[in-house]
Design a protein that fits this description.
Largest sheet: 11 strands, mixed
Helix content: under 10%
Number of helices: 1
Strand content: over 45%
Number of strands: 11
Radius of gyration: 17 Å
Distance between the termini: 52 Å
Oligomer: single chain
Length: 156
Amino acid sequence: MKKFLTLALLTCPSFAVAADYAIGDLMIMHPIAFETTKTAMSGAGYMTVTNNGDTADRIIRAEADFPRVMLHETTITDGVATMTHLEGVEIPAGATITFEPGGKHVMFMGLNGDPFEVGEEINVKLVFENAGEIDVLFEVEARDQTGDKAEDHSGH
């Protein structure tokens, strides 16, 4: 059986699977970023945060080795997309908040000719108001070419 499992794992296509992280009652799941173009000045990170506790918490900032890292949210009003800086993101007790293309995201600004490449990992420290700090790796994945709503941050 062990030989079969090993052979099956070796012959199956490999898929990058972002790790999950826990701090206190919070679970940070599937932190990813999408590859960027060579001329991109910024990129975005996405994840899901679940609060399994009885008390709300807030992400108050993200830190990484870029000139600027901010929490942002994209909203669309009358067909016009606007990106807004967020001072924090509330994670209510018992709730899950999704950072996703077209919504909340971590904005990495100042790529300066060093694009995000598939397979790269971006070390990010997430700082929560109550739970404290945790280092997570955002794995860079290929953009879905089938029409996902991933935002192009190359102009920011």
